[in-house]
Specification:
Elements lengths: L2 H7 L23 H8 L9 H8 L4 H42 L4 H16 L3 E8 L4 E8 L4 H4 L2 E3 L3 H9 L3 E3 L12 H10 L3 E9 L2 E10 L7 H41 L6 H16 L4 H12 L2 E5 L6 H10 L3 E3 L2 E8 L2 E9 L6 H41 L5 H10 L8 E8 L6 H21 L3 E5 L2 E7 L6 H16 L3 E5 L11 H19 L6 E3 L6 H5 L5 H19 L3 H10 L4 H8 L3 H15 L6 H17 L5
Helix pairs in contact: 3-4, 4-5, 4-9, 5-9, 9-13, 10-11, 10-13, 11-13, 15-16, 19-23, 20-21, 21-22
Length: 656
């Protein structure tokens, strides 16, 4: 025996540790280990080549090297996913921090600077800046800059429609340019180009700051080198822009509130010279301030003023108040007497929101009159704040539904998070409903107003039902959860009634079949919306205006309305119980039905066709009646049953 073989047969000394196997000789199952270690310590991407290079240097087996290559690619994918998640966590953290700053807003400039700084940091750009429109001068000016070094750039004022910012402001959409000076989509001016050249900017991304439908400014991120901004980065900057617009809106509301409080203070100055009413006026001020701070409503304000004035104060809608007195109060800015009542208009920005009415109190001294007027002012502020909050939520709900309809966001986790913040559950079964007003307005302005009222009513309904609503295609689309005790038809009819009552006009509603798992399948929302619109069109063609229905209500015509031509569903709804009965019991009810209709619904001819006794035919038809209902031989039902039988026969296996 050769010496080396003899030595290998000797037992190893227990105190001597065997040498570690080379990387090339390890078992293929251990290929993942070095990459897991690299992942654990957060190594750079280059480090993932080392295990493969080492195995090749040791001249390891080909299958071992191949296993390492596969493990390397998998580890790099995991590393990339972890990096992406860390980046998204950082983005969400920055947005939450900014929202927290906004919640405790004290200094608008400080909040805007924080937004611009975080946008620049997260997007990794050289410069970030924010411009605001100046309606008085008709141009746009730099409000906040971060990373800028050129004084001329920081002091730029842009005319409306000039530069990249002008294009964003005109279209109310984000725009990006990889090379500013070579981009001809927007108007170049000497002043703007000189400022951009001084700053050395090349790639610029701009997103609009929106308040309602109006652009109030633009948020920019820019680099001093050519760069392509990714879709996620554009969306992130858009989120920061929304927060900046909210900060500006909040600051404006605070300014209006401070102005109103200043007005209340001036009223206190007027009544301080009257010792008999000072305590009462102070009580009014304290009560109203407390109501505002604790989130009270307009009826709480009316109740508080009723106690102070020792009378009955009510808030009424503008249509319910005396028209002449209401117009006088609105024009003069003071409470006016109407018979034994006093009317104080509740208005904001020229819009009449309602009135505070002091009942049965003809004698009112100037101080009490001023108290009623200030209560009307606080009421208008509360109504504006409530409207602003409702409109903001409606916009967010509409944006999420628009994204689902357009399948822009395909990340199920993000879709679920956005829906959860609106108290909606995308994992529940939903129905898509298309709603439209039936009446035709005499002019474009009235039609637009009617559509806004329909959208507002639909948004309110969606909010109370934990659903979503958006204006689309001249009408409104809703995404509402379906209760287990309801059908799509029930939901469509109930929605048509609710919307019609809210807008005082007939509203027709078409519904899709129930759809589920919307976060993972956002494209299903668009398909369901198309089906709901077809159902809506069918209702209007059938002169069923003001009604609601789903495709299943149209029987076999529903096959023409359904987007996916649900033949199996139609067959199951029409003769499914008979088919199931045959499958479970081995009977021939389906064959008997086929023969019965083919023989002109004659039992005598049917028994000859089937070669059975006529009593057998009668018994089978009696069983069919119990399964399908007593009216199964009526003309309408018979037509649907015959169509279902033919579709069932055609969709089944070929007969040989």
């Amino acid at each position: 025996m050769p010496r080396d073989h003899a030595q290998s047969a000797e037992p190893l000394d227990p105190g001597v540790r065997a040498p570690a196997p080379r990387a090339a000789d390890r078992a293929p199952g251990e290929a993942e280990t070095p990459f897991l270690e690299l992942l654990a310590r957060g190594a750079s991407a280059d480090a993932y080549e080392q295990p493969v290079l080492l195995a090749r240097a040791e001249d390891g087996p080909a299958e071992r090297i191949a296993a390492l290559e596969r493990a390397k690619l998998l580890a790099l994918r995991v590393r990339s996913e972890l990096e992406g998640r860390r980046r998204r966590e950082a983005e969400l953290s920055a947005l939450f921090e900014t929202a927290h700053d906004l919640a405790g807003l004290r200094d608008l400039d400080a909040v805007l600077r924080a937004i611009v700084q975080r946008a620049r940091s997260l997007l990794g750009t050289d410069v970030a800046y924010l411009s605001l429109n100046d309606p008085a001068r008709g141009d746009t000016y730099m409000r906040v800059t971060e990373g800028s070094v050129a004084a001329r750039f920081q002091q730029l004022r842009l005319g409306m429609g000039e530069g990249l910012g002008g294009l964003v402001a005109q279209t109310a959409r984000p725009y990006v340019t990889d090379d500013y000076f070579k981009d001809a989509r927007f108007q170049h001016t000497h002043n703007i180009d000189a400022g951009v050249r001084d700053e050395g900017l090349v790639a610029i991304l701009g997103v609009p700051l929106m308040l309602g439908h109006h652009v109030i400014g633009v948020l920019f991120a820019a680099d001093r080198r050519a760069r392509v901004f990714e879709r996620e980065q554009i969306a992130l900057l858009g989120s920061f822009a929304a927060l900046a617009a909210a900060a500006i809106d909040t600051a404006n509301l605070l300014a209006e509130t401070r102005s109103a409080l200043a007005e209340l203070e001036r009223a206190n100055e007027i009544i301080r010279d009257r010792s008999g009413v000072i305590e009462r006026a102070s009580d009014v001020h304290d009560r109203l301030a407390e109501l505002v701070l604790r989130g009270g409503g307009v009826h709480d304000v009316a109740a508080a003023v009723s106690q102070v004035l020792a009378g009955t104060v009510e808030f009424t809608e503008a249509a319910a108040a005396p028209a002449g007195a209401l117009e006088s109060s609105h024009a003069e800015g003071h409470a006016v007497r109407h018979e034994d009542d006093w009317i104080a208009a509740v208005s904001a920005g020229g819009e009449l929101l309602g009135a505070l009415v002091l009942r049965g109190h003809p004698g009112l001294d100037p101080v009490d009159q001023l108290t009623l007027e200030r209560a009307a002012m606080v009421t208008s502020l509360l109504l504006l704040a409530r409207r602003s909050a409702a409109e903001a939520e409606q916009r967010v709900r509409g944006e999420l539904l628009d994204d689902l309809l357009d399948a822009r966001d395909r990340d199920p986790r993000l879709l679920r998070d956005r829906a959860a913040r609106l108290r909606a559950d995308l994992d529940a079964t939903h129905v898509v409903l298309a709603a439209r007003l039936d009446a035709t307005a005499p002019d474009a302005d009235q039609e637009a107003d009617a559509r806004r009222r329909l959208w507002a009513a639909a948004s309110h309904l969606a909010a109370t039902r934990h659903g979503l609503a958006a204006a689309r295609d001249g009408g409104t689309v809703l995404l509402l959860p379906l209760d287990v005790r309801d059908t799509a038809t029930d939901l469509a009819r109930r929605t048509a009634r609710a919307l019609g009552t809210a807008v005082h006009e007939a509203v027709t509603v078409g519904a899709s079949a129930p759809v589920g798992d919307l976060a993972a399948r956002p494209e299903a929302v668009a398909a369901a919306y198309a089906e709901a619109r077809r159902c809506l069109d069918a209702l209007r063609l059938l002169n069923r205006s003001g009604d609601g229905a789903a495709a299943e209500d149209f029987g076999f015509l529903g096959l023409l309305l359904a987007g996916d031509r649900d033949i199996a569903g139609f067959v199951d709804r029409t003769i499914g119980q008979v088919v199931t009965y045959d499958e479970r019991r081995g009977t021939e009810l389906v064959r008997t039905l086929d023969a019965y209709f083919a023989c002109g619904m004659s039992p005598a001819r049917t028994k000859d066709e089937l070669h059975v006794h006529v009593n057998t035919v009668a018994q089978r038809l009696e069983r069919v009646g119990r399964l399908l209902g007593d009216d199964w031989q009526s003309p309408a039902r018979a037509l649907e049953i015959q169509l279902a039988l033919r579709l069932h026969r055609l969709s089944g296996p070929a007969q040989h």
